[in-house]
Every structure is written in C-alpha cells, then in structure tokens.
Model the fold of this input.
Amino acid sequence: MSRYEREFETGWETLGKDEATTRAYAIGVAERLGERNREELKAIYAEMDSAYHRSMVELAYEEGRNEAKAAADPNSDDGDAVWAELVQGEVTTVDPDDIPEPKRESLPEALDSGELLDKQEVDSTEPVDRPEFLDR
Done:
C-alpha cells in the first residue's frame, strides 16, 4: 500500500475542487518519492468539470513534484519525512542558531528612495509669508 493510499481513500465517487487539488498535490509528492499513481491522477483530472479546475489540478500535481524534489535530501532515503512535512503538514523545527544571518540589513544604495521622496515638514503659513528678499 502506497503512502497516498494510506493517507487518502481511493474509493471516492465525487470530489470537490479543493479535495481534488489536495489529492493531486499528494500524488505529485508521492510520484517524486517513487510511488506512481497515474490512474488516480487521471480519475481526479476527469472529475473536474471545467478547464480552469483541470488546470488547477495539474498545477497542484506539478507543485507537489517540485516541492518534494526541493525538500528531499539527496543523501537520505527518508521519503517518510518528506511526505509527513509536505502532505501531512508536520512542522519541522529549526534551531535559531542554525538560521543564517542576513548579509545585508537594508536596500542597496541604488534602490534607496532618497530624500526626494521623503515627506517634507511643511509650515502651513510659509506660502503666504513675506519673501526674505523684501526684508531689510
């Protein structure tokens, strides 16, 4: 029995669009982990009644494949951990000491807004004040 079959019931009669995209995502993850289930994916795809929903199913499937590829450690065969993180939603905690420090604390100077866009302090009476060149 595959991970997908343990997680999801395969004897469904109808699926909503949200359930279909969730299942397609899981099939994509499972396929990247070496468990092909194209029949289920085709059945889910056929269940969708519009081109928009079929494209959402296809996107969810591709996203599952891509995220599983990114999450899988090439030096490890721990597909269960990848499945648990991506499909079952188990959260992996990271030690704060392992988080890399940012290299830059602000935007590069070329992207800085500069002083021209800064809000100037405006005196509400300044436009009607007597010009300085008229003062002695």
Observations:
- The chain has a mean pLDDT of 78.
- The chain is about 45% helix and 0% strand.
- The radius of gyration is 28 Å.
- Residues 24 and 58 are 7 Å apart (CA to CA).
